[in-house]
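Entry for the shared binder. Reason: the reviewer on the internal report wants the predicted structure included alongside the sequence.
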Amino acid sequence: MRNNFRLILFIFTIFFFAGNTLTASVAVCQQLPKDTAVKTKLLKRITEMLQFRKNARRREQQRMITIVNGLFADSLVATPAAIKYLNWALDNERNQNFAYLRQLINDSLPRHTTDTVLVKAGITEEEMTELAGKLVPLLQQKEVEVKEDTARQQRLKIIRALYGRPPDQVDTLRLSDTTGRLYKIRLSHQAEVIGIQSKDNGDAYMNYNFTTLSYLSIAPPGSYKIMDAARKYGCKTMFMLNGSSGLLQNEAQQFELVDSLLPLLEAQQATGVNVWIRDVKQSERDAFTRFVTILYNYLDHNAPGKYSVAVTIPAYDKNKAYDLRELAPMVKYFIINFTSAPPPAGSCDPLKGNNNYSIDPVVSRYVNQHIAPEKFILMLPYDGIKWVGNTYSFMSYKDIKKAYPQDSMVSYDVTAASAYIGNIWFNDPTTLDVKYDYVLRNGLGGVAICPLGADDGYGELWDELTDKFVVVDTVWMDKVRLTPLPVEKPGLWTRIKQRIKYELRAIHQLLKDPCSISTNYYKSDEYFRYLAIFLFVCVVLIGIFYLYNVRMEGSDWKLRKKVLYVWIGVIVLAMLSCTVSLMLAKRLPLLGFTDDPVECKNISLYSVLVVFLMGIALGMVLMRVFVFPLVRKRDIP
């Protein structure tokens, strides 16, 4: 018994280090032997270990595909049949993963409505050991998934931090104490992501992450609001030509359509056209190629290299209606449509399985026509498909989420990489993760999601798309010095000239627009005030000198006229300096020029100065004409 107990403890220890949380409340089994009670609770323990903590993030619950509280009954019996079924199923399932383990446990355990623990003997230690050896790798896989999800959240955090960053913003990376390197950071795509706007869904576009999209495909003429929003976030746009095969029979109508398309492309700044004509017949193979040729030649002739052409093709070209080798030189991308219902009931876009409609064989079949893989883009559905017998209807992702609560049991077809609840097949973050990896691993051109807005109100599909295809791109630029070069101190005369230039610019701005400059940015009024005081002193000294010599020598003083002219000139300069000082002094609010933008009177002081100078000139003319002749007559004997 001791050895059996040690074995079971060893199994529980391995489960614990596999990254699972033990939240079980062990039932009290007083009337049972100790080793038997532990055995009967093994599968109960396993289901509890696969549960998430109560405060786990909702997104994490959906991604990790866990068994939630309340899924299993409180009393579970580890019957020999259940153990043998799990062993057999794990032996026969090639693509074992954590989701499959959860489904096996759910299918193999009986349910009970009471808390009584029922015991059935016959479970051998070899069967327990065999089961534990098969479960441990699957539980370890969950630990790896938890680490990957943590890394994914960190990548999304970095990408979101760059949302709204100006594309031309330049930063500096310090290489040493004196050297750095300029660089720009931008978001780019490691493969194309095309959003298909197949129908008008109102204001749902406001929740689109246009940064994640590289192209928006929309029917012409397109919504101005949606296309403007796309261009704002750097998402290119293309028009989607949805037409019937009847267009292929009328070449004149084709030319009319192409001719009317070019003005729309120019007006909406679109970058290309996506041709999506459904149900093309084998007899229309050449006509379809002819139409694409007309479209390509017309666009290339009128705007060489400006517009591209994409063609949407079915997953299974049963009519052999598309000549891909002939179209390849003209077509930038072939968009493989996996949104139509396949003949057998199941997923629209299984990864493997049906040879005609599964992603892997379809891509292989197209690539083997000697066309580069980067020309192919997978169109994956955001709508689920609901089967009732052989009939089906489509159901959007948001409607599926609303119809089934968070704790609903989601099953997974590992081969098809598709999720299903009952008879509804759909994509969720887990299945899209596998298919996105397939696109990147095989070097395909990218993915197209259809239709946009099918997940409105739920962000997990956008997060998965962003994490897989959006990358941070660093553009390195020139090296720069981090410390400024030594600057020689300018000499006295150089500093004087610099100051004079600075004050002259300030004076010009003040005289032109006195309210536009603050008193903190100039000292010109102080300089003119000092000049006015100096000239006033000069006026007084020259006046005393002039009057003294006239009194002493009279009219015989030889320097009388010269000193008089100097005296008058200094008086004029003193008056002018005083006036300019008053005009420049914004500290005198009575003049109407202040630092307060409300009270400042924005009058050009150039006009005031001109009026002042004109007044001085007019006064001098009046003195010359009227005053000086009278003085001369009085002096003649």
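Summary line for the report: The two ends are 155 Å apart (CA to CA).
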